[in-house]
Design goal:
Layout lengths: L1 E5 L3 H12 L3 E5 L3 H8 L10 H11 L2 E4 L10 E4 L15 H10 L8 E4 L7 H7 L5 H29 L8 E5 L14 H11 L3 E5 L4 H7 L4 E2 L3 H5 L4 E4 L4 H4 L4 H5 L6 E4 L6 H6 L3 E4 L4
Parallel strand pairs: 1-2, 1-4, 2-3, 4-5, 6-7, 6-9, 7-8, 9-10, 10-11
Helix pairs in contact: 1-3, 6-7
Length: about 300
């Protein structure tokens, strides 16, 4: 089947390559010429396990191509909308500007019977709104988003406070190492990353912040150059007064023994921002362990 994917970021590029890998003919469309140029050459512009291989294979087979020309979507039977929907700067609602622009650009190239499928993260009622023309369910969805956003912010505040409390009420001139910069493991995506938010907040309180991550350091450095970045996990841990795990990479949750970590750090404070560590094992090794909502 012929498919189009509108938006070739972390969501769309992976979806396009994956669909091509199972035999569909796919065209990926994006307004960012640099991104399209990279993808067309088979270069994955971000880290995602396995993406490079299926991207290269799809292009070589002729099943996958990328363009900035929306008219290339004509003839596809299913069109996937995969553009970004960041939180609006003036409130809690999602910014649907790119979704509306994608649909408006696609409309002249649709044929009877075509299916438009939304993959972007959108509030409840968006699909009905697009079909009938931005308000069905808007009030309820915004209230839900507000509640979820407040929960997420409280968790970040709590992680910062746990570090402050464990270091005696102040982090001023203390060396704190953050394990993880990406918003999730196996990605270099730092958009709205809790790890970086926590690191920046602690930096603002006067802590000397060191951040490490297996894949996301370069992206993080471009956005938050005020932080110190160390690629090597052990190097980042060396002489730290406190350690906080905010992205649950296996390098931190499975492959870092508390006894070994203790041989590198100055302090024995670990804050588990993801509740992904074995609390008993870290405490048995002499660490002050603090988790989220854990005794």
């Amino acid at each position: 089947m012929r498919l189009s994917v509108i938006g070739c970021g972390y969501l769309g590029a992976v979806h396009a390559a994956a669909m091509a890998s199972i035999g569909h003919e796919v065209v990926g469309i994006d307004i960012n010429q640099r991104k399209i140029d990279a993808l067309s050459k088979g270069d994955a512009p971000f880290f995602e396990p396995g993406l490079q291989e299926i991207l290269t294979s799809g292009i070589a087979s002729g099943k996958l191509r990328f363009t900035t020309d929306m008219s290339a979507a004509k003839g596809a039977k299913v069109h996937f909308i995969a553009v970004g929907t960041p939180q609006r700067r003036d409130g809690y609602a999602a910014d649907l500007t790119s979704v509306h622009a994608a649909v408006d650009g696609l409309l002249p190239h649709l044929s009877d019977g075509d299916i438009v499928a939304g993959k972007s993260t959108v509030p409840v009622g968006t699909a009905a709104d697009l079909a009938t023309r931005e308000e069905l369910g808007r009030g309820e969805s915004v209230a839900f988003l507000r509640e979820m956003d407040e929960i997420n912010m409280r968790r970040r505040n709590r992680a910062v406070q746990l570090v402050v409390d464990a270091l005696g009420g102040s982090v001023f001139q203390k060396k704190v190492t953050v394990l993880g910069a990406a918003f999730k493991p196996h990605s270099d995506d730092i958009r709205d990353s809790p790890a970086l938010d926590v690191a920046v907040r602690l930096h603002g309180l006067g802590a000397s912040m060191t951040v490490t991550d297996p894949a996301a350091i370069e992206n993080a450095r471009r956005v938050h150059p005020q932080l110190t970045y160390v690629e090597d996990r052990d190097g980042a841990l060396r002489d730290a007064d406190a350690v906080i795990v905010v992205t649950e990479w296996d390098e931190y949750r499975r492959q870092l023994a508390p006894e070994y970590a203790a041989s590198l750090t100055s302090g024995r404070v670990i804050v588990d921002g993801r509740n992904c560590l074995d609390a008993a094992a870290w405490r048995a090794a002499g660490w002050h362990y603090a988790g989220m909502g854990r005794p």
